Amino acid sequence: MYMSKTMSRKLTVLFVPINYVGPINSSIGMAEVLKDSGHRVVFAARNEWSKRLKSLDIEVELLTEETDEVTGDSAAANAEELKSVLEDKTPLEKALECMSILLNDVIHDSDKDEQKLKQIIKRLKPHVIITDHIITLPSIAGSGIPWIFSYSSNPLSLDTGYEDKRLPPSILGLSINSNKNLWEEYRQQLKNARKDDWFKYKDWLISNGSPLVPDDFLLWVPSPFANVYMFPEELDYTDVRPLPKTFHRFDCMKRSGNEDTFELPDKLKSRSGKLIYLSLGSMGSANVPLMKRLIAILSKSEHKFIVSKGVKHNEYELADNMWGERTVPQVKVLPIIDLMITHGGNNSVTET
């Protein structure tokens, strides 16, 4: 009865995604469904996303000063922050370095937004807040407003807030059938890599009045209201590790892409062969040596390719059997292709 009454009235829903491409895209997917159901949807976002969100008829509360000129670029900034991780290293070396860099950078960015976010929440008075982040935000946890923790990454990495040792540690790409004797060793190495910054993070949470602080060396606290994540049911881990009733899985949080248009370029229309899409996401495509290697291999194929070139698009050229740009409208491209080559990003997998 309570739920039916709640859903029958117009709610104001505030989205607070981290300033990364993936979380913002999946948040847009949820926001479109809520907006189409008659609810008011508002994003707390930085200026660089304002134009795109407004093109979807989504209200924006800016965390940064509004300007006509967009000087920031989250994809480029994220790639720059983690450029050393993209170098030729083992998966374990990359994961440990990522852990040591990521938490410090995220706290720094979140601290810049925290006071403005508190003001937005106080003024807007939303009925519910949905945050897709990798840390707990004091402004949300201490708001007194029901909030939902949304997770757009692979559910293995729920272990940064809800740890379960029946699964391998995240980030390393380990299979459920990998050597279990090494799991705990890797898990401890990952925690040690973020240990120093975690104590700074704990102090930051407390100094900003957060009523919630994660357990030792974890990054976020599950919401007591609801936690949502996206992943195909067939690939999920719930048969090995059942989740609490406050966790809810969705097959996808696919955005409509209605703001985009796409027509197959003439150079590909006239070619024979299957149509294949290559996308390594906003981070993987920043690995220029890898992209050059893939381009060289695929140039020998009898098929034709659409390539999402990424933030380093000016640093390499495509072969004759390819067309691409810095970004392509993925949601529009997927229905017309025969095959996708992907880095395995969660938005890409679930949208495909």
In short:
With 352 residues, the protein is α/β, with parallel strands linked by helices. 38% of the residues lie in helices and 14% in strands.
What's the layout of helices and strands?
Elements: H1 2-8, E1 12-15, H2 21-36, E2 40-45, H3 47-55, E3 59-62, H4 74-81, H5 91-124, E4 128-132, H6 138-141, E5 147-151, H7 180-193, H8 195-207, E6 226-230, E7 247-250, H9 266-269, E8 275-279, H10 281-284, H11 288-298, E9 304-308, E10 322-325, H12 330-333, E11 339-342, H13 346-351
Parallel strand pairs: 1-2, 1-4, 2-3, 4-5, 5-6, 6-7, 8-9, 8-11, 9-10
Protein name: UDP-glycosyltransferase
Organism: Medioppia subpectinata
Q: What can you see in these coordinates?
A:
By secondary structure, this protein is an alpha/beta fold. It has helices at residues 2-8, 21-36, 47-55, 74-81, 91-124, 138-141, 180-193, 195-207, 266-269, 281-284, 288-298, 330-333, 346-351, and strands at residues 12-15, 40-45, 59-62, 128-132, 147-151, 226-230, 247-250, 275-279, 304-308, 322-325, 339-342. The protein has a 7-stranded parallel beta sheet with strand order 3-2-1-4-5-6-7, sandwiched between helices. It has a 4-stranded parallel beta sheet with strand order 10-9-8-11, with no helix packed on it. The longest helix has 34 residues, at 91-124. The two termini are 37 Å apart. The model has no long low-confidence stretch (mean pLDDT 90).
